[in-house]
Amino acid sequence: MIKNVHGNTVDFLGEAIVAGRYPVGGAVPPEPVLCEELGVSRTVVREAIKSLVAKGMIHTGPKVGTRVLPSDDWNWFDADVIAWQAKTGLSAEFIRDLQDLRRVVEPAAVCLAASRATAEDLANIEEAYAGMKRAVTQGGDYVTYDLRFHQGLLRASHNRMLIQMSKALGALLRTSFEISTIKKDGPRKSLPLHRAVLDAVAKKDVARAEQAILVLIDGAHDDIEQVLAARRRLPRLSKPAPALKAA
């Protein structure tokens, strides 16, 4: 999606804050400096500042100016904040926070999906699974279809708040899936685990669906912890996910 001048300005400032170029407690440069640096009007800068205030990243006041707030105050369910963090780099702490969130949110969503999924929901999840299987056997983009599979489960919960949380989970899900693609036979071994989740949801077996998704999540958790323990570099989400080679 092509962003307008306002969106690009918000992105520039948001990424600068997340990357620490404007440190916590420090001041964001004044309007005239930002206008000159970014080549935009004062109106654009002011609107961008309002957007960042709404995301909990900065505070403005007549005597203190525009100050960066601690990261605990940021809205971590905001898709922009997640995207800026992902582009800057996912820390071990951030990944573990998201792992915890996933273990709380996704089983609950899958239980609801097992009760509420429509024929259309199931068809979309089935299509995503077919894409994953095709990538394993013929090569291709496994990660995108894996992400569609899990987001399809969240949408099938038909709970607006859980669906919104999928945006925050997206960074972890893609990181997890990329890690699984670099493990020997990781995607191939995960296919039957995904099939078990889909089958349980399709049969409206709530207990089995919950157990199946927990097995899948815990396996991903173990993969990520191995990578973190080995101090290996985490995937950078600013780059396309690697494609699988044909089996």
Task: Give the SSE layout.
Elements (H helix, E strand, L loop, with lengths): L4 H14 L12 H8 L3 H13 L3 E4 L3 E4 L10 H10 L3 H25 L2 H20 L3 H14 L4 H23 L3 H17 L3 H24 L18
Can you walk me through this structure?
The relative contact order is 0.12. With 247 residues, the protein is mainly alpha-helical. The chain has ten helices and two strands. It has helices at 5-18, 31-38, 42-54, 79-88, 92-116, 119-138, 142-155, 160-182, 186-202, 206-229; strands spanning 58-61, 65-68. Strands 1-2 form a two-stranded antiparallel sheet.
The global form is: elongated
Work out the helicity level. 55-70%
Cross-sheet strand order for the largest sheet: 1-2
Taken as a percent bin, the fraction of beta residues is under 5%
User: What number is the mean pLDDT?
Assistant: 88
End-to-end span in angstroms? Answer: 34 Å
SSE topology string = HHHEEHHHHHHH
Q: Determine Rg (CA atoms, Å).
A: 20 Å
**Biggest beta-sheet profile:** 2 strands, antiparallel
In total, the number of strands is 2
Low-confidence stretches: none
SSE-based structural type:
mainly alpha
Number of helical segments with 4 or more residues: 10
